[in-house]
Amino acid sequence: MQVVIVESPSKAKTINKYLGKDYEVLASYGHIRDLPSKDGSVNPDDDFAMIWESDAKSKKQVSAIVDAVRRADRVVLATDPDREGEAISWHLLEVLQNKKVLKDKPVDRVAFNAITKSAVQEAMNNPRRVDQDLVDAYLARRALDYLVGFTLSPVLWRKLPGARSAGRVQSVALRIICERELEIEKFKAEEYWTLDAEVNAGSGPFRARLVRLDGEKLQKFSLTTEADGARAKAAVEAGTFRIGSVEAKPTKRNPSAPFTTSTLQQEASRKLGFSAKRTMQAAQRLYEGINIGGETTGLITYMRTDGIDMAPEAVMACRDEVKKLYGDTYVPSSPRMYKSKQKNAQEAHECIRPTGFHRHPDDLKSLDGDQYKLYDLIWKRSVACQMESARLEQTTIDVVSSDEKTALRATGSVVTFDGFLKVYEEGRDDKEEDGHFADSARLPKVTANDNADVRDAKPEQHFTQPPPRFTEASLVKRLEELGIGRPSTYASIISTLQDRAYVEMDGKRFIPGDKGRIVTAFLENFFGRYVAYDFTARMEETLDEISNGDVEWRTFLARFWEEFHAQVEGMTGLRITEVLDALNEALGPHIFPDRGDGSDPRECPTCHEGQLSLKMSRYGAFIGCTRYPECNYTRQLGQSEKEALEEGDRVLGVDPNTSLEVSLKNGRFGPYVQLGEPDPETKEKPKRASIPKGWEVATLDFDKAMMLLDLPRDVGPHPEDGETIEAGIGRYGPFVKHGKLYANLESVDDVFEIGLNRAVAVLEDKKNNPRGRGRAAAKPLKELGAHPETGEPVNVLDGRYGPYVKHQKTNATIPKGTKPEDVTLEQAVELIREREAKAPAKKAKKATKKKTTKKKATKKKATKTAAKKTATKKTAAKGAGSETAAE
């Protein structure tokens, strides 16, 4: 028997059918080991030795693989054909060698670019060894990312309280987004005017634009005022015109190259509205295949690639399909060959294409929505790349005045042969319109020197526009242009930035959050080299050189670590005040905008003596006065002074019972109401209450403020024991409480309106259904079907913290950006597996305790009692030790 190991169970199932009964195909479920998330997993002082660990889920898979290998005659490592796939094979080989189950058994590495029967069988007939150069490049990248993250992040936590963490590549991507936002903020719109007019030379009217005035060629900013527009209009209306010249020039447009990972992500974003993560999830399923005629077949080639080459047999199959579907005229005389312009293109495999061009998208309507849309896109782009060029005719007509001081021009393009456009046309980013296609209308046939009637001259005002914010498509394109990251990393880079709340989405565009801008400013000021675009790109080039065997990976890491570690050590004596001064300077235009009255934008608007400054707390950054505590002015970062003044620090009335003022204030964590002021002698804080979600601060009045300050509210005595039931607003929202039993309420209004009978009913529901938080069990948003392993139902539900998938007792949160209705059974099963793998190993400990003999249990009890006595004697020492640790 031969054991074949791949990454995913669906891939294993497909390949097992291809290979037959003499093979056992097992899945590793991705990486079986990783660096644990703790300090010391990479040791620079021990030649960058690495500690690898397996989680509970991986240990289970490794155990099954080890058992199978013991019985096998040969082991075949058939993981993906890229650097990560090579690394998975290396990890498997290392573990099997450590377990001493290989002995003299042959171990081969095979790689195939498509999961089809022919591709798999060909790979099995041409095995090789694990490529150590590719593995070394993986080790270098993994160590590099670990060392940067685990060395830089603690610096952030110490110097920027509230910051999350920093990553080697994610920080550079964040810088790109922040710099674009700064460009937008600094942008000053400039006014300019254009003039269009209707021209008729006897063959039908057309529109033309003014290109010459007073004998001077017009530039973009030649006409900058309304007066200039009026002057241009007068000149056109006063002139006598003729057709000066007519030029009709044939042009060609060639098809785009087939898809790479990044161009697929860009195009799926433009045309389908898919995120990078959603695109890769759908592509993974297409690669692993669907059932066709009783046989599971991969529909596309491997989807993590920056190669645009297409296998010769695929090129010929594509040309045959073009001829069959569209005729000879759409097939070019010779095959089209594409060469990557990216200097560091790597991973020597093909572009992303269909495994069979005969599988037309219309024949695969059984695919789910995302898979069908993506396959349709890939099929069309791949077919179009081997089609004839589109032929166009570009016409330019110049209309000149009799004194030749004034001229207008009209341009138009007409497709004379559609060629590849019959199948596919590439999407376009903002402001990337091709001039040939700006106006596709055909211009009328006119002759030079014909008289022309020019009328309806319309001057139009324009303003220059700031550069657009990045979309996922344009960000991926920019990262690729700069040589930052790799095809397999773009989706995770974007997800990480969103998960850390460093960026937000406005529609489909990235806006850097204040937290992200502060982290970027900090890194640029104190670690500028390590977020520099060219430095990061050079690192990627070096990793490629390692994969080619040209650079020794430990030597590369040693050079990097020596400089990086010295830079971090130099931050030890840096004071937080120095950090704040640097951030105040770097972010000044953003956090201290010009007030428009000539005053100092950093002058405190309350005391007029202190300066406003960025301040840090464990909850993040805010703006405060440097004269604190004499002046307690604060506002949230990103909030204007006007908003801060409007939302807070106004008196709402006087409490008749205490004669204390009730005021609305604005703190670093948002608006709140307050009864009275702090006692100057005892420093006792006054009673306060936060404004609940959904309440408009602008409409908050005295009555509502008193309702909040009077919480918790007594609802009435419980009929069973007479103890008072209370209603209030807590950390987790509105609630009712009886003794130690809490039950959530649906809305804040219920806190003030709920009566005794309903409160008792809600509490009783919570007592009987503790997991339902006082409500009946939630109904599924979507029923996905039976789990493939247990047969139990898998459903999508809406929970307190957002939508999640449920299987038996396992709940797994649906990732941000994924709509509940779009979740498939395959996605849900994978999310559940990941959640189960992360579950704490408490049950195992309990099971061990049950097996403990009575004698051992007695011994443990005696030891525990002795330990308690010792602990009592050492209380003082323990306290001192805790202080030392805290320091």
What attributes characterize this protein structure?
887 residues; alpha+beta; Rossmann fold; Topoisomerase I, domain 2; Topoisomerase I, domain 3; 8 domains; six-stranded antiparallel barrel; four-stranded parallel β-sheet; 25 helices; 32 strands; globular; disordered C terminus
- Rounded to the nearest angstrom, the distance between the terminal CA atoms is 60 Å
- Report on the biggest sheet: 6 strands, antiparallel, barrel
Quick one: CATH class of the largest domain?
A: Mainly Alpha
How many structural units, i.e. domains?
8
Strand order of the largest sheet: 7-8-14-13-10-15
Helix content range? 25-40%
Structural class: alpha+beta
Poorly predicted ranges? 430-439, 841-887
Structure in words:
The protein is α+β, with helices and mostly antiparallel strands and 887 residues long. It has 8 domains: 2-130, Rossmann fold, CATH 3.40.50; 140-187 and 468-576, Topoisomerase I, domain 2, CATH 1.10.460.10; 191-254 and 391-463, Topoisomerase I, domain 3; 261-388, Orthogonal Bundle (Topoisomerase I, domain 4), CATH 1.10.290; 601-709, no CATH class; 713-772, no CATH class; 782-839, no CATH class; 852-886. 38% of the residues lie in helices and 21% in strands. A 6-stranded antiparallel β-barrel has the order 7-8-14-13-10-15. A 4-stranded parallel beta sheet has the order 2-1-5-6, with helices on both faces. A 4-stranded antiparallel beta sheet has the order 21-22-23-24. Residues 430-439 and 841-887 have low confidence and may be disordered.
